[in-house]
Task: structure prediction
Amino acid sequence: ALAIYENLGNRQQQGRVLREIGNLQYKQEHYQTALDYMQKALILAYQTEDIVILPMTNNEIAKLYIQIGDDSKALNALYEALRLSKMEHDGDIREQSVTHQLLADSYVRQHRFDSAYVHLKAYYELREELLDKEKSERINELEIAYQSQQKELENTQLRDHNRTIYNQYLLLFTTSVVL
Result:
């Protein structure tokens, strides 16, 4: 897939494929190789201004730096992810929450509990906001489905009523013609 996107000159998709290769390397615990792929993906994401992928890739790079043991670079990547996720239209709340959770975990490992608390609190606030948003969306979907069902029931009742009236008029007409 990478070669195809390279031939097509589609740098955004090249970056996304590199990111996926990096994720596969991460799962196989080849952290340095994964980091190399992620950094290449990050460069392409910046070049193509792929605002959706930038925060995610920075978070993934931070995870790799944590595995490698470079907390300083992990924190830099996390704060960049946080900055980028806030830039996205309306802010990417889900990615911000992931970043805050990673920041909290990182600070706990460094025994910087005051900073860990701040980010853990932000994480839970964002998760709550996400849940509220998802609940509202679900309630709206259910309300629309209910209203549609009610309209369909009303339409069915009106059709039945109209058939009854039609049959009554037909019977009345037939009776009047016979008489």
